[in-house]
Amino acid sequence: MARKKREEEHDDPARWLVSYADFITLLFAFFVVMYAISSVNENKYRELSQSVSSAFGIKTAPIVAVNDPPPKAAPPPIIRPFRKPPSTRAEIRKEREKMTAIGNNLMKVLSPLIHEGKVKVVQNARGVNVEINASVLFAPAEASLSGQSETVLRAVARILKDEPNDIKVEGFTDNIPIRSSQYPSNWELSSARASSVVRLFIEEGIAENRMVAIGHGANDPIGGNDTPEGRSRNRRVSLMVQSMIPETVTEIPLKHPRE
Question: Which partner for 187 in 150, 161, 198, 217 could form a disulfide, CB atoms 3.0-4.6 Å apart?
Answer without folding.
Answer: 217
